[in-house]
């Protein structure tokens, strides 16, 4: 499958990904769910859609060097030079929509995946989920993190603060194609994962301005890299105009409250590769 990423892969986009990582870490207070146990030597962790590799590079600081950390993305353009990576971190190219190489089957104790909203079509994450399960060991943990866009709410620091454009932006992304996020626990169970758990958490209001700044960067990124190329005429300009109007309201105390969702589950101790 070709790289049809709706966002960008430049330095500004890499900066957004790295900042986003630290915001998620701050909001969740962990990188790997407490449900995971990485105490044994030579355990293996995969990060799917690794982007700049930031999640693995941060994780490497808290795990013994015997833990093997491997990241995959459809593009290596955001990776640091291989020579600068920790000895137990490897970054490779693999499109998770494609069948995983046989060498990866049943390899990992933990598989982590985050923020695939913009690349999943037809409201169906099952193709990605099946491929993640193929590379997971029996008994291994899958951790999938997404924003629940349907749970977004607009709040203001005071009743008189304007919010009309911020509400328009919040409603703009509440589309049916994202409904799979809040049904992800049921989708996990339908693929026979066990010990399924769900964590849903709002960012702290003290961090909401940073989340909003990132969202506006993302909106302009989407307008430039997707709408300008594929959307109706002037649709990209309309989103950029909306982003500027929202920013004016954000400066007066409006924000979108985000819901971060983490779903975990374990692959049964039976071979999924039927």
Automatic annotation (TrEMBL):
Top-rank taxon: Eukaryota
UniProt cross-references to CDD domains, sorted A to Z: AdoMet_MTases
Pfam family, one: Methyltransf_23
InterPro entries on file: SAM-dependent_MTases_sf
Record Gene3D superfamilies: Vaccinia Virus protein VP39
PANTHER family reported in the protein's UniProt record: METHYLTRANSFERASE, METHYLTRANSFERASE DOMAIN-CONTAINING PROTEIN-RELATED
Protein name, entry field: Methyltransferase domain-containing protein
Organism: Lepraria finkii
């Amino acid at each position: 499958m070709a790289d049809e990423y709706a966002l960008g892969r430049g330095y500004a986009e890499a900066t957004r990904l790295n900042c986003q990582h630290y915001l998620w870490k701050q909001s969740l207070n962990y990188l790997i769910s407490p449900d995971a146990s990485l105490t044994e030597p030579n355990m293996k962790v995969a990060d799917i859609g690794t982007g700049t590799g930031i999640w693995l590079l941060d994780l490497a600081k808290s795990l013994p060097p015997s833990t093997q950390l491997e990241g995959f993305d459809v593009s290596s353009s955001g990776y640091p030079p291989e020579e600068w990576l920790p000895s137990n971190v490897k970054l490779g190219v693999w499109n998770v929509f494609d069948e995983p190489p046989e060498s990866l089957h049943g390899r990992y104790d933990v598989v982590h995946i985050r923020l695939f909203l913009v690349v999943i079509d037809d409201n169906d994450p099952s193709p990605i989920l099946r491929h993640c399960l193929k590379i997971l060991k029996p008994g291994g943990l899958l951790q999938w993190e997404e924003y629940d866009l349907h749970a977004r709410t607009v709040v203001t620091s005071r009743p008189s603060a304007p919010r009309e454009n911020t509400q328009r932006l919040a409603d703009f992304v509440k589309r049916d194609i994202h409904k799979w996020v809040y049904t992800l626990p049921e989708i996990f169970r339908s693929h026979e994962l066990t010990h399924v758990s769900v964590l849903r958490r709002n960012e702290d209001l003290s961090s909401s301005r940073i989340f909003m700044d990132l969202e506006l960067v993302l909106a302009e990124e989407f307008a430039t890299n997707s709408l300008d190329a594929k959307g109706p005429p002037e649709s990209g300009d309309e989103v950029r105009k909306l982003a500027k109007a929202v920013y004016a309201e954000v400066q007066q105390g409006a924000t979108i409250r985000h819901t971060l969702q983490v779903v975990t589950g374990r692959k049964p101790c039976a071979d999924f590769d039927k």
